[in-house]
Specification:
The chain is mainly α and 82 residues long. The protein contains three helices and two strands. The chain has a two-stranded antiparallel ribbon with strand order 1-2. Helix 1 runs antiparallel to helix 2.
Length: 82
């Protein structure tokens, strides 16, 4: 009974979060909102296809943009109150 509670909510084949832009386009009908709705649905559907959520996709994009190496300073070299 409880085994499917951690799975994402789906509407037909799309993740439910990806249907939100289409809902916006249906409620406020214009060509601009239709294009925004289709682009948003394609974006959310793509990241859902790869198994990512929006925060995970943003982190992956940031890692791809900046690179794998993270520069850091040791705690004793940090300037704390400036």
């Amino acid at each position: 009974m409880w085994r499917g509670t951690g799975l994402p909510v789906r509407f037909l084949i799309l993740d439910a979060r990806s249907c939100l832009p289409i809902l916006l386009a249906v409620l406020h009908w214009s060509w601009t909102t239709l294009i925004i709705g289709v682009v948003g649905t394609v974006f959310f559907g793509t990241i859902s296809f790869f198994g990512l959520t929006l925060p995970a996709a943003l982190r992956t994009g940031r890692r791809w943009l900046i690179g794998r190496r993270r520069t850091a300073r040791p705690t004793w070299n940090r300037r704390r109150y400036s």
